Amino acid sequence: MKGFTIAIDGPVAAGKGTIAPIIAKKLNGIYLDTGAMYRCVALHSLLNKVDLDNSKEVEKALSEVDIDVTQDKFFLNGKDVTHEIRTKEIDLLVPKVAGITKVREVLISQQRKIAEKTTDRGLAFVAEGRDIATKVIPNADLKIFLTADLKVRAERRLKQKEEKNKSLDFEKILESVINRDKEDMQINKTLVTNPGEYGYFILDNSYLSEEETINKIIEEMKKRGLYDKN
């Protein structure tokens, strides 16, 4: 029996990275953190002083990048970089890396292959990002657009930073979230502004708990015959 695909898109701090792996676990499927793959490219570029404005340097760097992604660890050329790809320096580089056409082409191709291998094994494939359902797996069995109020997302981002013992100002975090949204929608064009037109199940979880958000998604999956557990 062939497996199925679930694509979860949405803006920064909407909860995609938290919700997607939980859904995959409930389905006994595979979760792919596509954002980590871009972070790996960003880290490689940083370590090797790649000029991201030089297309030839970028293409050469891509040929040297070997990314292996498991459920909870990320490897760059055989080295575990799970923690290294989550630094502030990488945060700043990711939007630029993600906006480079060649990088996206190479990684999207890899992501599609992973999805195909997973479903061929009869497993559910769950991926999250900003354009998974429009670029990577446009024929996903369930497309989810997870979003939340701007200030709620900024508060979540602030909490994430505080958990890492970083003292940051809310207004600065809010500004960074606004700027990231603009980059994703207007510059990189990786985040759709009209998800309803792309067949997404739109879920605003501004005032939903993690459990309530998951239950809403499971309800939608049941409607589509993708979840038959009691």
Tell me briefly what this model is.
The chain is α/β, with parallel strands linked by helices and 230 residues long.
Give an overview of the whole structure:
The protein has 230 residues and is α/β, with parallel strands linked by helices. It has one domain: Rossmann fold, CATH 3.40.50. 50% of the residues lie in helices and 14% in strands. The chain has nine helices and eight strands. A five-stranded parallel beta sheet has the order 2-6-1-7-8, with helices on both faces. It has a three-stranded antiparallel beta sheet with strand order 3-4-5, covered by helices on one side. Strand 4 and strand 5 form a beta hairpin. Helix 2 packs across helix 4 and helix 2 crosses helix 5. The protein is globular and about 50 Å long. The chain starts with a strand and ends in a 7-residue tail after the last helix. The mean pLDDT is 90.
Task: Tag the structure with descriptive keywords.
230 residues; 8 strands; alpha/beta; globular; 14% strand; Rossmann fold; single chain
Which stretches are low in confidence, meaning pLDDT under 50 for 5 or more residues running? none
C-alpha-based Rg, rounded = 17 Å
* 3D shape: globular
Q: State the fourth-level CATH superfamily.
A: P-loop containing nucleotide triphosphate hydrolases
The total of beta strands comes to 8
Distance between the termini: 20 Å
Q: Domains counted in the coordinates: how many? A: 1
Number of helical segments with 4 or more residues: 9
In percent terms, what proportion of residues is strand? 5-15%
Mean pLDDT: 90
CATH architecture term: 3-Layer(aba) Sandwich
Helix content: 40-55%
